[in-house]
Amino acid sequence: MKKFITGSLLLLVVTFLAACSTSTGGQRESLDIALWDERADDAVQASIEAFKQEHPDVEVNVTYTPFADYWTRLMTSLGGGSGPDVFWMNGPNFYQYATQDLIENLDSYIEADSSFSKESYFPAVVDLYSLDNNLYAAPYFVDSIGLFYNKTLFDEAGIDYPDETWTWEDIERVGEELTDPSNGVYGYMAHVARSQPGYYNMIHQAGGYIISDDKTTSGFDTPEAKEAFTFLQALIDKGISPSIQNQIETEPKQLFLSNRVAMLPEISVHVTEFQAELGDTFGVAPLPKGKEEASIVHGIGWAMNEKTDDKDLAWELIKYLSNEDGNRVIAETGFSIPAIQSLSDVFKDYLPSVDLQVFIDAQETGVAYPVSKRTAEWQDIETKEIQSAFLGQQTIDEALEKIGAGMDAILEEEQNE
Q1: What pLDDT sits at residue 10?
Q2: CB atoms near residue 380 (< 10 Å)
Q3: Domains, the chain, ranges and CATH?
Q4: b/e per residue, 68-86, with b = 16+ CB within 10 A?
């Protein structure tokens, strides 16, 4: 770890520490929460109000930090023995925090509390935040990937909307029909700069995998991964999709919201935002199939600072955030699919004009977001080499070979740690 911190980073860290410091003694009178998405504020505040009815003397402070800065601030504060009491955890960072004893093992609290049952939640998100069968983050909401589409562009071209029968061939065929270079309209967004809504899904749809089930082998240097990336490259070469340079320069979602992309694979948490922008023009369908159906499934959990002063009180707050009422509120606000399976219909009914069942169905046939102890390290290699290939600096085969070798080396080191 570097001994010196730049001025801007120091300011960010000091701000985070000030907002999320733990008390150093005496009776606990406040709890600090940290997360990154202010769109969840209504749901979070509703759970806090319910918690304060039982704990009126406890002040709960919420800090929202942009995702780009969130993990740096969180790691710095927790590593220094401070930080928020309760905070959002995601899959790519989970193993690092759990194995470095930065977050509390929740199983002892769960075993002593009959009101919390792991079986109530979608298994994928419980597995995502479990280590050695112990849960380290209480499931809050889940997400999956669907095909967002612009009804107006389909209507103008006289083309039927996508449905559950679609395959990769339909992406290429219809995408070509919808592409209109004279008006700067692309038929489809072939994500090569974003993994979760893009190529992760397509590798699995080709019959491959990102990481083996035993977390020892990369799936990038395989025929299935090559098939997926070759298909994405063909869509770009034919002008059906923006190039990676376009995707880096202009966010794919902005291209879609400005009616310049007809079809966009995207994460369920963006549904309300897109529907608010596009209204009845906006539609959602299942991801088109390759050899198999596949949609990457992820979710967010509430973790507890291992060094929080009052762990029982922090657990009480986590329960209010992740229990049935907390999950119901996250569904009623339309933010995302509640992690409690029985509340799926609450989310589905939030926007009758959009087929939200697509994302619920994906929980049954979806593929868990790929993680290992050092996810961030091999994802850095992955991003660098894929961007290099699609910028024309090397072939796809060369890039995938480098990712596979680099990832396998990291996974081997993980096994020996």
Answers
A1: 42
A2: 13
A3: 13-143+298-365 (3.40.190.10), 145-294+372-416 (3.40.190.10)
A4: ebbbebbbbbbeeebbbbb
What would the mean pLDDT of 366-388 be, rounded to a whole number? Answer: 94
Rg (CA), the chain: 22
pLDDT in tens, 124-155: 899 999 999 999 999 999 999 999 999 999 99
pTM of the model: 0.87
Residues 6+ apart with CB under 8 A from 139: 121, 122, 125, 126, 129, 299, 300, 301, 322, 339, 340
Tell me the angle at which helices 324-332 and 41-54 cross, rounded to the nearest 10 degrees. Answer: 150
Q: Which long-range contacts (CB under 8 A, 24 or more apart) does 325-329 make?
A: 325/47, 325/50, 326/43, 326/46, 326/47, 326/50, 326/140, 327/140, 327/141, 329/42, 329/43, 329/46, 329/47
Tell me what the mean pLDDT of segment 267-294 comes to: 95
* Band (334; pLDDT cuts 50, 70, 90): confident
The mean pLDDT value for 287-309 works out to 96
Q: Which residue has the tokens 């081997």?
A: 412
Beta strands, E only, 78-229: 86-89, 130-131, 134-135, 138-143, 145-150
Q: What's the pLDDT score for residue 293?
A: 94
**What is the SS3 assignment for 280?**
helix
Gap between the Cα atoms of 297 and 142, Å rounded:
7
Calpha distance 261→254 (Å, rounded):
9
Choose between 124 and 252: higher pLDDT.
252
Distance of CA 375 to the CA centre of its chain: 14
C-alpha distances in angstroms, 267 versus 156, 335, 370?
26, 11, 16
Burial class (CB within 10 angstroms; exposed 0-12, middle 13-18, buried 19+) of 294? buried
pLDDT score of 26 more than 90: no
Give φ, ψ of 197 to 5 degrees.
Answer: -85, -5
Give the pLDDT band (50/70/90) at residue 335.
confident
Q: What SS3 class is residue 304?
A: strand
Which regions of 24-124 does DSSP assign to beta strands (E)? 30-35, 59-64, 86-89
Helix 324-332, helix 311-322: angle, nearest 10 = 50
Please name which of 179, 148, 187, 147 lies closest in space to residue 277, comparing C-alpha atoms: 148
